[in-house]
Specification:
alpha/beta; Rossmann fold; Dehydroquinate synthase-like, alpha domain; 2 domains; six-stranded parallel beta sheet; two-stranded antiparallel sheet; 15 helices; globular; binds zinc ion
């Protein structure tokens, strides 16, 4: 039996003693991404909640699904409340200390079970708050836009910097496929970008294994790689909001989060492309501007890192996995994803600096950027200039 051969539901709720020496535990009980997703979420919450239930949404997700979830729960479980995280001056909700603090203050007492209705931000805020309350939570996803659903940590913004903060894994992840496929198109492309980045995450994981003897799990790496393959194979149909493709993306995103959880490290799901994106995001946040959606940036940064590997792969001390850069770009374009940092509004200087200094966004993860900055800074500078010219001139 190999993890990659199991359906996502067969992975949830079990533990897997593995040849790599780790017993992999996804830490969640149920996943249902289907037309029936919300109904099965309601049944699950009613079984789990012993006391007060709180449904947390933002104004948009309340309209899309939150109200329906609240009404259905309230009908069968009187002690149910909801909270809509309010926008401020028309600006979207962000997972920073201010929004989290206010949400915490507004929480009623004696909550027994939390239900997040939304995607990245609502999930991150609910994860963090339920963790501090010491209560369990589940999430009803509204967009297949990022791989944080099954994650144990939340990427929160504290004092204008992104920080990975403690949290907990939801015990259930649900989504109504009709809602997912009708999400704003940029959220669908974001999901595709975040999924395809797993190719580079695995490449760099192997690179660190072969170069530094880093621990590696073939089961987890294969699981992630196959999930990306499944999405790449049907990328073209994303533009039609094809149900099967949207389901594949959502499941691949959840699997990616589960893989990182089962490995207790983000190694399986992110590499240098994520560090470049974190560098971009911080620059936007410092200027008080909204940054592009995570996965859309990740898709672009994946193209950048693939080009970088093409330049350096023959100069590296170990052989790395061959990923066809042209094919990655074609897949992203066929799905309607951006592939150029200019199109995302990344300033030229920020772009160049992100290649030179992206590695500082992680102290522990050894990527191609870490390797070049430690061993061949002149080459890294040459590459940064070359790629900047290629995209911006
Ligand atoms: Zn393993
Ligand atoms: Zn990501």
């Amino acid at each position: 039996m190999h993890l990659k051969d199991l359906k996502i539901n067969e992975i949830a709720g079990k533990t897997f003693p593995c040849k790599c020496g780790i017993t992999h535990d996804p830490g969640l009980e149920i996943i249902d991404i289907s037309k029936n997703g919300i109904v099965s979420a309601i049944d699950f919450v009613l079984k789990k909640a012993k006391g007060r239930i709180i449904v947390i949404c933002d104004p948009n997700t309340f309209k899309i699904a939150g109200k329906q979830v609240y009404d259905s729960l309230k009908e069968k479980h009187e002690d149910t409340e909801y909270y809509i995280i309010p926008e401020r001056n028309g600006l979207a909700v962000v997972p920073n200390e201010s929004f989290i603090g206010e949400t915490m203050i507004r929480m009623p007492l004696d909550i027994d079970f939390f239900v997040a209705v939304g995607s990245g931000v609502v999930n991150d805020i609910t994860r963090n708050i339920s963790y501090h309350f010491g209560k369990k939570y589940c999430v009803i996803g509204t967009a297949p836009s990022m791989d944080g659903y099954a994650s144990i940590t939340s990427a929160l913004i504290i004092k204008n910097l992104k920080e990975s903060c403690p949290g907990q894994i939801p015990i259930g992840i649900f989504a109504d496929i009709e809602i997912l496929k009708n999400a704003p198109f940029k959220m669908l492309t974001a999901g595709m970008g975040d999924v395809l980045a797993k190719y580079n995450a695995v490449r760099e994981w192997q690179f660190a294994r072969d170069l530094n003897g880093e621990h590696y799990c073939k089961e987890i790496a294969d699981l992630i790689w196959c999930a990306a393959d499944k999405c790449a194979a049907c990328a073209k149909q994303l533009k039609d909001r094809d149900e099967a493709v949207v389901k594949n993306i959502m499941e691949a995103l959840i699997l990616s989060g589960m893989a990182m959880g089962m490995y207790s490290n983000t190694r399986p799901g992110s590499g240098a492309e994520h560090h470049i994106v974190h560098y971009w995001d911080v620059e936007f946040i410092k200027k008080g501007q909204e940054h592009p959606l995570h996965g859309n940036s990740v898709g672009v940064a994946l193209c950048v890192i693939c080009k970088l590997f093409d330049i350096v792969k023959d100069k590296l001390p170990v052989k790395v996995i061959e990923i066809d850069t042209g094919k990655i770009i074609r897949i992203l374009k066929s799905a309607g994803c951006e592939t150029d940092p200019k199109a995302l509004g990344i300033p030229k200087d920020t772009f160049r600096d992100s290649i030179l200094y992206g590695q500082i966004m992680s102290k522990t993860k050894y990527t191609i950027l870490t390797h070049l900055s430690r061993n061949n800074m002149p080459l890294l500078m040459e590459i940064a200039d070359r790629l900047t010219r290629e995209y911006y001139e």
